Amino acid sequence: MWHLNIPAKVRIFAWRLYMDAIPTMLNLNITGIHVNPICLLCNDGVESVDHAILKCNIASNVWKMWDDCPISLMGNNMDIPDLALEIMHQGTQRDLEKFFGVAWRIWYNRNQVLFEANGISEAHIWGAAIRMIEDFKDANGLKINHMRDKKDYWEPPPVGFYTINVDGAIPLANGHSGIGVVVRDSDSRFVAAMSLPHQGRYSVEETEAAAVEQGCVLVKELGLEGVIIESDSLLTVQAVEANDVRGVVGHIVKGIVQSFCSFQESKIRHINRTSNKIAHELAQHARRISESVMWRMEIPDYLPEPARSEGAS
Ligand SMILES: [Zn+2]
């Protein structure tokens, strides 16, 4: 989150959103200030952070203006940290900046209405937020170019190694999660690819961790040694590297670390989404099928062209 190119006030607000620490009516109650927890804007429900930022009527009308939002913000039960992760995963950093900018403006408007009795229309909230983010970008445009460190294309592993790219996709409405795994050698040749439906509804973090776990399973089945697992989930990579078995994915991380110990040489690394296109497509595909599919020594033929040419020289 600290790489986001947004004004400091929005950055601080984003952090407080993450920590569920903005003073909504509900949070005031939790901290011991006895006020009516019902939302004063709509009188329709307890004012939690989710309510104030996403579900309250003004807020939800503002979000409807986001035509090309990479995920569906409404109608799922993700909290703000999960939504932010999923936006980053399905969309771009720019989308996440927009998300926090608009969230900040919604909260600002809520305070204007409550404390100064002068809110503005939904369209104005949206417009003001987008302008704020764009203006800030223009002023800082030069800086960002220097901040890019990771490559945005896939590169084959060193001779004798295999790269296992993995990715997870959270369910579409009523569906299941999906996992994608692709194994390539140092000549960028396909060794295997897999689309694996992951029955049940899991969080982004769980799905990403499960994808790494399935990558390890496939490596074992293929009998490979010398493996580099690549995931675009920073949280998962950091948890595995630190052997951090706390939290909801702790049990999965534990399994992954054990697998790692059984390989002759193995490591995990974090990569950009743009260098993980094939695994991404395989994971998306897995959400649409009910049984897992595996390909050996060939590219799945339904893969779209940009993904097929990833890493091809
Ligand atoms: Zn409300």
TrEMBL record:
Residues 1-63 form the Reverse transcriptase zinc-binding domain. One of its GO terms (molecular function) is nucleic acid binding. InterPro entries: RNase_H-like, RNase_H-like_dom_plant, RNaseH-like_sf, RNaseH_domain, RNaseH_sf, RVT-Znf. Residues 165-286 form the RNase H type-1 domain. This is RNase H type-1 domain-containing protein.
